[in-house]
Amino acid sequence: MNIFQTKSSKLHGTNYKEIVKHAKAEFAIVEHKSKRKPYIRSAYFNKQKVFFDFFWMHLFQKREPERVRRLKYFAASLELIGKSRNHPESMQNPNKASEILHRFAGYTKEKELFYVQIKEHKRTKRLQLMSVFPAK
Description:
With 136 residues, this protein is an alpha/beta fold. 31% of the residues lie in helices and 30% in strands. Helix 1 packs across helix 3 (64-71). It starts with a strand and ends with a strand.
């Protein structure tokens, strides 16, 4: 798997309130570009739209410290989705046969490894940002 080097650094902050503020500011830029559902166009998927609705639901199922850990990589993940042409690690979803999971790897500006997982529905080819998380 090729690893994409982003120019973005991790979001700064020490607690959940600060991190969410920065993440929402980054998301507001994306949200402002469309009239309906927010999306970002992916370079790897030939400029297809990647939607965010599943990401926020998935994030708020986690406990607060885990949310902070994941949201710190939000800005870098937006850059990775939009600019990376590197091939992801792809596999069929073990829980649902009608979905494919694509896992992209990236480095932040500080050389910290993180992953972005995108879910693709086989029939509709609809792409959803599923998760962003650092390497263990």
